[in-house]
Amino acid sequence: MKDIAQKIISELKIQIEKSEKPLIITHYNPDGDAIGSMLALFHYLVKKGKQPFMVSPNDYPEFLHWMPGNDKVTVYKRNTGTVLNALNAADLIFIVDFNDPERTEGLEKYLKEAKGKKVMIDHHPDPSDFADLVISDTKYSSTAEMIFHIIESMDDESLMDQDIAECIYCGIMTDTGSFNYNSSNPYTYSVVSKLIGLGINKDRIYWNVYDNFSIDRMRLLGYCLYNKMEVFPEYRTAFISLTKKDIKEFNFSPGDTEGFVNYPLSIKGIRFTAIFIENDKNIKISFRSKGNFAVNKIAEDHFNGGGHLNAAGGYSFSSFEETLKKFRDLLPQYKTELNYDF
Ligand code: 5GP
Ligand code: MN
Questions:
Q1: Whose CA is nearest to atom 8 of ligand 1?
Q2: Cβ neighbours of 332 (radius 10 Å)
Q3: Is 310 near ligand 1, meaning CB less than 6 Å away?
Q4: Architecture in CATH for domain 6-210
Q5: pLDDT tens digit string along 209-219?
Q6: Which of helix, strand or coil describes residue 273?
Q7: Domain 216-338: which CATH class?
Q8: Looking at CB atoms within 10 Å, which of 17, 21, 37, 324 has the fewest?
Q9: Per-residue pLDDT tens digits for 41-58
């Protein structure tokens, strides 16, 4: 494991010590790694005698609410004034699990203008140049794993407790799809081993996150797979698409479609999947792949987005049907790549 440069760790130590008003912010539509990393860092900073303010740009699914400290997160969409005041007042701003202010979807201007020193902790490729201190490395399974490594590198492993461990484990588990992808680095398992040693109940964490479907959500999944999935065996691709009307029928709540994009990857031979979800403003798209087919490139080149090699996302501002057509029409140009052995 490549260590974070000692110079950066020393600088971070100084900044944390000096800080009177730290703030932690994560990305829009936060996932388990975003919330887990933010909360783990929060608990650590509390142990260092700080009182960090935590911001999520919008609401997030109920299956992430069980993490210790969740009640202390302020949602910008519902508390704009409070969050903007906190951002103005903050002297140290941690940017966790994202690499570009655009990913806050509404806070970018305020984040760029904020006076506090900015520390980015993230594992996405190509960090944009807006933080004062950048801790960015794609080699980590998750930002949560980086938080562990940072605490360790600050010689504060003794401050790690069960609360911190649960939040970090949730981040690692969700960003690796339960150790399915992004999880071939032995370091990840040395971290997990220490987390288990701290007394976490890893099975319960799994149940809290994954075995938490409402009946409507389970039926929506069935509907997606039975009625709304298109499969293109010649391109080893499958996608699911949901209109606003579909979503309404199943009493949709945030997070209900989380993970659905992965299901078609279980079809023999399929290595590229997408899900298109229509909302009032645009169509949100998620991409997943197996092996070396770069979905972040697809998201960047065609759908105003980005992400990781095997998990990325973006948007379309065209009509629903035009968007699906655009996707179907793209496939032939990737035929060779999609059919490489992997
Ligand atoms: P998800 O499909 O779960 O929403 O996102 C998977 C990954 O894709 C995220 O971790 C993030 O890296 C990336 N991602 C999703 N949506 C966007 C987007 O609109 N823009 C960018 N740059 N990345 C995205
Ligand atoms: Mn992440």
A1: 312
A2: 12
A3: no
A4: Alpha-Beta Complex (3.90)
A5: 999 999 999 99
A6: strand
A7: alpha beta
A8: 17
A9: 999 999 999 999 999 999
